[in-house]
């Protein structure tokens, strides 16, 4: 190693070892620094970029919350490798710049250069193979815990190959944008001084990309998805017909026609138990549960739909039942059948459930494109029902409950300003699979008792509000310590440690959350760890298949709804409800 003077203008540039070509590239091709080389899209890769990229790939193969399908592996590998490649390339360029500024040069002959690079690449490939084999073992362990398999080694191998292809596509796009930036820069050189031309060119390219993405990609994709969702909502579900009971919307006596309810609304009012089903499971006399619903097809305004639902509640005699449940739907109008039926069985049918459709968007699209409508709808419906109940004489008012799952939980909690407001206005509530970005959930979690984990916060020693990753935690905290007496109103948050819908958030890109740092989830791999950027995509790719797991894991709550609702109602959540669970399971599967 020797220190030399910087080359004068016209002399060959210094040899930069961090931007060497891949093995086989002629030695004479690399004296020039990166910015002076040909900009061909298929040029050789950056060695530092490839090195850091493979390191992030190794992290991407580490466990997430649920077993992966091949495409989940592909997404993790592709975006993580691209991220690492960019970071490594930038680091390599910085070191190259620093070497030139300090007149530092390392000279090595072509044969030694080729040998060192080959050994380095072989080392990286071997380590990658070892990491992949280890990831197969970890995926097998997760599959055993979650009770679901995603296809084994072949599935993961296909995922890795698809991820490499995705990385190559992203690389080509990145190089195409760099070429565009250089052309824009050359165009504006005569107009702007040197220090500004690069920045202005970058801004022009960024704005052009955002404009094209917004108008030609995002909006068109959104309109296409909305069109499909709207069309699906207008099709009647197979095997369902308008209910004959006057206690249900869509019946001949209803203000809301069967056609106006939409697909999800039609399923909601036609499904569920009748009095005979409830009596058969509980051995006690029962009533036919009341189910009322207002669809979006004839009530485009949220407030109009809320008033229509309340009119149905009054018409059916819902206010004369002992319990009224305001169930906030997901974007498509879906009402969680397990939650509704659990409450109906536990109350002996002496309950009226009221709901409405406020959107055609599936939850995944609503997460991205519309977070304002669900809480508006939740507040409008709850306040409309609440006002109707408050107008009754005090001794004739039914108990008012609220519920929702996933986006429905997010929307339903939008009815309340804070926890005190919720406790002052409900007689009980059940929220399951609540998205992390829900303000009320976030404020409660942040105020948890010191020492309680984020996946199961303890609020006021369990006096009114209890979080549970399993029904047992309605009677004791996550570590087995007893709560204080559970006072009314009782509010339950059901959430699994392995539910990506609960734990995914944008800040996973740059910050490690408490739930990952604490590593206490019973159905979560102990090898799960946080890595900037990578973990965000891992948890995001878990979400689409989070309901394709057995109950008790992921976003699948099902038969836990019975003990959770029992806790809200003041019953023993650990009692034997197997007959009710089995009956609900049969009713749901029959549909």
Automatic annotation (TrEMBL):
Keywords: Membrane, Transmembrane, Transmembrane helix. It comes from the Bacteria. The keyword Transmembrane applies. Residues 1-38, 233-256 are annotated as: Disordered. Residues 61-273 form the Alpha/beta-hydrolase N-terminal domain. The chain crosses the membrane at residues 45-63, 69-94, 114-133, 153-173, 194-213. Residues 290-572 form the Alpha/beta-hydrolase catalytic domain. This is Alpha/beta-hydrolase family protein.
